[in-house]
Amino acid sequence: MDLAFAIVAGLIVAATPLVFAALGELVVEKSGVLNLGVEGMMIIGAIAGFAAKLAFDSYVLGFAAAMMAGAAMAGLFGVLVLFFLSNQVATGLALTLFGLGVSALVGQGYSGKTAGAFPRLDGVGLPGLDVICLIAIGLAFGVAWWLGKTRSGLILRAVGENHDAAHAIGYPVRLVRFLALLFGGAMAGAGGAYLSLVQTPFWAEKMTAGRGWIALALVVFAAWMPLRVLAGALLFGGITILQLHSQAFGLKIDAQLLSMLPYLATIAVLVAISREGAGRRRVQPQSLGKPFYAAT
Amino acid sequence: MKIKAFMGAVATALGVVAMAASASAQSKTKVGFVYVGPIGDHGWSYQHHQALLAVKKELGDKVETTHVENVPEGPDAERVIDQLASQGHSIIFTTSFGFMNPTIKVAQKYPKVKFEHISGYKRADNVATANIRYYEGRYIAGILAAKASKTGTIGYIASFPIPEVVMGINAAYLGAKSVNPNVKFKIIWVSTWFDPGKEADAAKALADQGADVLFQHTDSPAAPKFAEERKIFAIGQASDMKSFAPNAILTSLVNNWSDYYIARVKAAMDGTWKSDDTWAGLDKGMLKIAEFGPGVSAEARALATAARDKIAKGELHPFTGPLKKQDGTEFLKAGEKISDAALSGMNFYVQGIEGALPK
Question: pLDDT above 90 covers what percent of chain A?
């Protein structure tokens, strides 16, 4: 296998869980809700997908179960935040802790088992890649098109920019947000399942190892643009993979420095978009994280 | 970090509740165990728990055991150890390097309670330390790896550049070099003990660059699992990883704490317990070489078994001179064996390993 192609394939595989989770969170944030529970939804997706694959011996059912489990977590979050108006930041953090705990409990009987090797696309000239990576890339384009070019995408953005105005025109703010949350949860679940069913493939406690937080940073890094999420995920994934390869080549680059880069880049972008006053208004959904009181 | 600390607190609180529930009988000797990870990690903490089960089996009704898993290294550890000590446990095993200072602190408060700290270097009248000579196993695994490799390139996934890990790399290299002088090591530092995704990525990077046997000094079975899929070989870490990769695993280096724990608990019961430092390996059976996998040839098997027996008898030390550091300076003269002090502070690659050791 050509080494350059192998590196690119490794980079796409490393980026895939991030693409799923970050695209889901992007849609959620575009609707005006901040869900910090991505890590929790991912890990629940990882165990649910793994358990379903073992039970039914089907990758389709595995991913379906992971998406449903992630969506269920997001639904719980949605009820608390949208209808009981609980604090979004605190509830999101609680969702992450809850997810890590529940997944460890459910996963007790699954450590040490293995899901078998996921079929790769070696036969069609894409060695090391799999159909799920391609779906993730397609999804980024799909979300970009949907948000930018469709009426329903416009409504979602309207709700996220100014929920009072959207409500006044008659859009169902809470329903739109709830659906966005379910989508976000399903995507986070799929990202987790990619980790436990394709990338590793086994179940281990805390196996998401902070990828949910990187996904959150990615959304900001990408300034809430789906195609930039894809580029950012490839960049973040790419940094990891290149770092590993450079070490194996014996090049002297500090691993710690490279591991730090994604976060440094995110902080830099945050500073940049906060500085340009008007520009910031353009990129960040204006109702993001604000509670919505439905006037009846 | 805050979140981690909070989760730790929750875990600790749950652990304490579990402990309270199990405190009952008086006449039995109470033995406490503190684990850093979950028992289900199939590695480090799992092996310590196997030793707890062995203590129970050996001593039966005479002991009552308590264990707390998932204890984070830090202030929470002190609380958990203190709780065990105050509940009348006569001997407490704290099984992670980061429990060193909390153990010493609690030990000062409870001079009558005996403490066994694993992998640390601070002792007191009631604190003994113990560790395993893992490097002996890595030397033998190095022989197997070099014999199984067709490309002559061995991949090594390393965690952090501490002496424990560095001596493991050196020992594996020396073992491999003893059967193939041209063997090459490619080393990747992943800066984590446990991140299955990253370990799998590192395994892939090594394989893509031509490595066909993978070593690891990280805790998840991601690398063996990858090796199985890629039809190359791997060495298992801490516990027998054969179930993850039946064809790929050449052998696993298994930590065996059972005999030591049983001996120490017995000593505590009959009053002969003394604080001391145990650093043993193949000689006392604290390190075991798991059954060889199908990738080990008859020749490799003979070489590895011979080396294992020689090390166990003390006839062979992996670090025997003449040996040079990577930069060419000699650190062991011909025939000289390395001292334990020099070994436990090892911070350099031996000559022949390429690449720079991170600081």
Answer: 60
Is residue B310 very low, low, confident or very high in pLDDT (cuts 50, 70, 90)? very high
Rounded average pLDDT over B250-268: 95
Q: Shortest Cα distance from B235 to chain A (angstroms)?
A: 16
Q: Which of A16, A20, A202, A236 to mutate to test the interface with B (most CBs of B within 10 A)?
A: A202
A4 touches B: beta carbon within 8 Å:
no
In this predicted structure, the answer to whether residue B18 has a pLDDT above a threshold of 70 is: no
Residue of B359 and A166 predicted with greater confidence: A166
Q: Check CB contact of A93 with chain B, cutoff 8 Å.
A: yes
B196/A10 touch (CB, cutoff 8 Å), yes or no: no
Q: Is A13 on the interface with B (CB under 8 A)?
A: yes
Please give the share of chain B, as a percent, with pLDDT higher than 70. 92
Verify whether the Cβ–Cβ distance B201 to A13 is below 8 Å.
yes
Residues of B in contact with A201 (CB under 8 A): 225
Position B109 pLDDT exceeds 60: yes
A124–chain B nearest CA distance, Å = 18
Task: Look up the ipTM and state it.
Answer: 0.78
Q: What is the pLDDT of residue B3?
A: 52
Q: CB distance B244–A114 less than 8 Å?
A: yes
Closest alpha carbon within chain A to B220: A204
pLDDT in tens, B118-159: 988 899 999 999 999 999 999 999 999 999 999 999 999 998
For residue A123, give the DSSP letter. G
A111 in reach of chain B (CB within 8 A)? yes
Residue with token string 């529930």: B21
- B175-193: pLDDT as tens digits: 999 999 999 999 999 888 8
Question: What is the pLDDT confidence band of residue A255, given thresholds at 50, 70 and 90?
Answer: low
CA of A7, closest CA in chain B: separation in Å? 7
Residues of chain B with Cβ-Cβ distance to A205 below 8 Å are 38, 40-41
Name all domains of chain A by residue range, CATH numbers in brackets.
2-283 (1.10.3470)
* pLDDT per residue as tens digits for the range B277-294: 999 999 999 999 999 999
Q: Are B286 and B257 in contact (CB under 8 A)?
A: yes
Judged by CB atoms closer than 8 Å, whether chains meet at B188 and A7 is answered as no
Distance from CA of B178 to the nearest CA of A (A): 22
